[in-house]
Amino acid sequence: METLLADAAMMRLLAHPLRMRILGSLRVDGPATSAILARRLATDTGQTSHHLRLLARHGLVADAPEQHRRGRERWWKAVHDSTVWSDLGVGGADTMRAVQHAARQVYDQAIDTYHAEVARQEWSAGWQRVAASSDYVIRTTPERLDRLCADIERLVRGAGEEAADTEKVLVVLHTYPLRAPG
């Protein structure tokens, strides 16, 4: 289940890298308390608590009462599996840029973390061989690009499996028209 961000207020909420990382961690790593999130994200509990309350106020996270509670621990979970956002048009260009910038910061941090783990020899040669970044420039139409993105999404969603030897893999896709300068 995904949530669509189509208004400026919700986009501004997620235009903060730590809020994006909190939401992502709850989706990928599962429910957590603010203290667990602070450890996962190398921040402090006060910040995670503050941002969790903001995310909850806007319906992106919720209490996770099914989690084991000790004392006054408050467990949180993501409400949706993913977030997509739509273009707000000319009037929302600054907000859209802020959300996209925050997303790129989160992606860059994940890639930097992977490379640091490689330097510490925490990944096998097999994982190092297949981890990649690449770019391609193609000539296409909006309709064909839409089909390409749908095909890629279908392939990505079909590639996952839960088995003992699997790892979580971040797949990031950017598709933007490109004009030559000049």
From TrEMBL:
Residues 9-101 form the HTH arsR-type domain. CDD domains: HTH_ARSR. One of its GO terms (molecular function) is DNA-binding transcription factor activity. InterPro entries: ArsR-like_HTH, HTH_ArsR_DNA-bd_dom, WH-like_DNA-bd_sf, WH_DNA-bd_sf. Coiled coil: none annotated. This is Transcriptional regulator. It comes from Paractinoplanes rishiriensis.
